[in-house]
Amino acid sequence: MNLSIAIRNRRSIRRYKQKPVDDKLLLELIDVARLAPSGGNMQQLRYVVVRTPEVVQKLFAHTGWGGHVRPKRSPEWGKSAPLAFIAVIASADNVSTHKIVYADAGAAIQNMLLKAVELGLGTCWIGNFKEENVSPILGLTPEMKTMYLVAVGYPDETPVQEDIDTGTPTKYFLDDKDVIHVPKFKVDAITIWK
Ligand SMILES: Cc1cc2nc3c(=O)[nH]c(=O)nc-3n(C[C@H](O)[C@H](O)[C@H](O)COP(=O)(O)O)c2cc1C
Q1: pLDDT tens-digit profile of 7-25?
Q2: Which residue from 8, 10, 12 has its CB within 8 A of the most atoms of ligand 1, so it is best to mutate?
Q3: Whole-structure pTM over 0.85, yes or no?
Q4: CATH number of the domain that 188 lies in?
Q5: Are residues 171 and 119 located together in one domain of the fold?
């Protein structure tokens, strides 16, 4: 798939088909995460792939979804919830002292989100969870911290993006056909030339 198309088509997905994702595809996502830039090429991130239904369910119970369209786009376990998560992990020391690891996580996650589009998968970057609830489920030692979760599954919705001017509300919203609209600032509205 052409990269520009993947970038434009990627949307956060909050409704998933109840079809498992093959381990091979999940590994392909980690494989592109590892190729992302990292500060000093230190490669401090680790990944936990969760696809065993009981563990996915436990994690899912601690995640928050679609704050602007709640509760309509809060996935339901067994109906519209993702069938896998990839947890992005760093050592707690690095997370508290090195803000660079957040940039590393962003670069790695974006690679995964775009690759997922190519693979026909949907994703949602999840930051809405309490680390102390999630890391024990993943069996992490105390010095490891869950930075983010990436929900992965086959998409069962097609959100649309639309261009807006600055000053316009940025909250995503549901229309009367139950489609999510995601406003993004127009390029000219956010670019300064010198
Ligand atoms: C750091 C970060 C954390 C996020 N956390 C959540 C989350 O916990 N729950 C959720 O439903 N969406 C979450 N999102 C998705 C954003 O809501 C979404 O990216 C934004 O609304 C723009 O929509 P788009 O991804 O379709 O472009 C997160 C995104 C980022 C970058």
Answers
A1: 999 999 999 999 999 999 9
A2: 12
A3: yes
A4: 2.20.180.10
A5: no
